[in-house]
Design brief:
heterodimer; A: Ubiquitin-like (UB roll); DNA polymerase, domain 1; about 10% strand; B: about 325 residues; Uridine Diphospho-n-acetylenolpyruvylglucosamine Reductase, domain 2; 3-stranded parallel sheet; 11 strands; about 20% strand; binds flavin-adenine dinucleotide; binds iron/sulfur cluster; binds FE2/S2 (inorganic) cluster; iron (chain A); 2Fe-2S-bd (chain A); 2Fe-2S_ferredoxin-type (chain A)
Chain lengths: ~170, ~325
């Protein structure tokens, strides 16, 4: 069953019980995507599927025929970091780093969602264009927990990328 | 996770045929896979319905038809829904996270199962999970449990937000049967009270597939969805209220309300609406509405707080919706 991961063709043939997360880590050796809770509660496993962020622990690999998956390995290289990666480094947006791949995938999708005008729970007017205030960033990133509590620096890092994009 | 046969449905009738005893349909998978990992759900066959053409939102006579596979994100982002049914967008945005809502579907959201701790713990008795084993929550830890419509067998609540807004909007669930026949079930009658059969969350029959949710004409008015929870984000409702009120010459012209977190289904009590309509808004009136709503309310101990909390949330929402000071 074909799918692409970070632009490369892959073939999934395993047990249908395999989650997308386990396939990425164990089947493809892409261990950047992390397993925290395995129940959709922590966001460590966040990846992009066809550009949308999802929890890869709560979906089966076999359900993704033909899909384009992007993991943290598809973002930047050590020589050429993605602007979000750069901002996380600059602002110390992590301590242990376990939640970081999920945070960055999530933040990337969040920027796109906001550009598409998707409102959030804290938006005053759900029909108005989105302005990514710190409150908006916090709400939109609430699906990514950080056990080290690097939250304020994570918001700083994302806010900087938002600013740069204006 | 127990093993299962995986298949992909190519047509609704195909899905209905495959949805035999012991099989489960899978849409977003965000509830079903969670439960399968814990072996609370142990289907021997999984029918993937994601390739069915149920992913669009179409105009109907007056209203909108939201395909069963429309993601919660897409539904809340739809311009028509944001403009004409803001309460629905608000309720969806109050639930889960962006990641989960990107996968969660309209049909799957309606069918999500309770968050009762005992239901989730296979070492505990639970009539919903294993009929006849008893209910651990009665006399146990029951802070999140029902205050209305519970039974001796089960005091669980339906945990979702979206369906509460749909109940206030009086939407309908479009369902296709095994023989290809279609039926419409009002959202208000879709979920059931536990009675003697808490293992049944809703009125779907074996082999029935949800194909869409149909919204009636836009109702206008002031629309509010208020959710009270332990954290201000990413938590299930303790109590929620979906409220649509239209004022006419200083009086309440129309009122439509539904409640989450109170019962095994989104709670709708026509008595509350009848009491409000035609009257001038006042705190005394709102208190009477709460009296009607909560006349039969019964706490289980740890959830007793939900009774006064529901009264306060209802009054706060009614004040705001009728333009009285909040
Ligand atoms: C951490 C976490 C937090 C959450 N917080 C909230 C919250 O605050 N508020 C809230 O409302 N929800 C919340 N949810 C629940 C979430 O909304 C549901 O998991 C989701 O809506 C289910 O949709 P799905 O498409 O993924 O369903 P699935 O998991 O695919 O299916 C769920 C059930 O529906 C059945 N089903 C699916 N589609 C159909 C169909 N077309 N016809 C018939 N049966 C069907 C399946 O057989 C299964 O039994 C949360 C979930 C998680 C994991
Ligand atoms: S309240 Fe219902 S779901 Fe919870 S333990 Fe009792 S029977 Fe099970
Ligand atoms: S590992 Fe997927 S959300 Fe925690
Ligand atoms: S940096 Fe350690 S969990 Fe976030």
């Amino acid at each position: 069953m074909p799918l692409t991961i970070n632009g490369t063709d892959h073939d999934f043939t395993g047990d249908p019980r395999t989650t997308l997360l386990d396939f990425l880590r164990d089947g493809c050796g892409l261990t950047g995507t992390k397993k925290g809770c395995d129940h959709g509660q922590c966001g460590a496993c966040t990846v992009l599927v066809n550009g949308q962020r999802i929890n890869s622990c709560l979906t089966l690999a076999v359900m993704h025929e033909g899909d384009a998956v992007t993991t943290i390995e598809g973002f930047g290289t050590p020589e050429e970091l993605h602007p979000l990666q750069e901002a996380f480094v600059r602002h110390d947006g992590f301590q242990c780093g376990y939640c970081t791949p999920g945070q960055i995938c999530s933040a990337k999708a969040m920027l796109d969602e906001a550009a598409n005008g998707w409102a959030s729970f804290v938006s005053d007017d759900i029909t108005a264009p989105v302005s990514l205030t710190r409150d908006e960033i916090r709400e939109r990133m609430s699906g990514n927990l950080c056990r080290c509590g690097a939250y304020s620096n994570i918001v700083d890092a994302i806010a900087e990328v938002v600013e740069a994009g204006r | 996770m127990k093993g299962f046969d995986y298949s992909r449905a190519e047509a609704v009738t195909h899905a209905a045929e495959q949805a035999r005893e012991g099989a489960r349909l899978i849409a977003g998978g965000t509830n079903l896979l969670d439960l399968m990992k814990l072996e609370i759900e142990r289907p021997d066959a999984l029918v993937d319905i994601n390739r069915l053409e149920l992913g669009g939102i179409e105009r109907t006579e007056g209203g909108l038809r939201i395909g069963a596979l429309v993601s919660n994100s897409a539904c809340a982002a739809d311009e028509r829904i944001r403009r004409d049914y803001p309460i629905l967008a608000r309720a969806i945005l109050a639930g889960a996270t962006f990641q989960l809502r990107n996968k969660a579907t309209t049909g799957g959201n309606l069918c999500q199962r309770t968050r009762c701790y005992y239901f989730y713990n296979r070492d505990q008795p639970c009539n919903k999970r294993e009929p006849g084993t008893g209910c651990g929550a009665i006399g146990g830890v029951n802070r999140i449990h029902a205050i209305l419509g519970a039974s001796e067998a089960c005091i669980a609540t339906y945990p979702g937000d979206m369906a509460v807004a749909l109940a206030a909007l009086d939407a309908s669930v479009e369902v296709s049967g095994r023989d290809g026949s279609a039926r419409m079930i009002p959202v208000r009658a879709f979920h059931r009270l536990p009675g003697d059969h808490p293992e049944r969350d809703n009125v779907l029959e074996a082999g029935e597939v949800i194909t869409a949710v149909v919204l009636p004409e836009p109702v206008g008015g002031t629309q509010i969805y208020r959710k009270v929870r332990d954290r201000s984000s990413y938590a299930f409702a303790l109590v929620s209220v979906a409220c649509v009120i239209a004022m006419e010459e200083g009086r309440i012209g129309r009122a439509s309300l539904a409640f989450g977190g109170l019962a095994h289904k989104p709670w709708h009590d026509p008595g509350v609406e009848e009491l409000l309509v035609g009257n001038e808004p006042s705190d005394a009136l709102f208190d009477k509405a709460a009296d009607v709503l909560l006349a039969e309310a019964k706490g289980q101990g740890a959830n007793d707080f939900k009774i006064p909390m529901t009264r306060r949330v209802l009054k706060g929402v009614l004040r705001e919706a009728t333009g009285r000071a909040v």
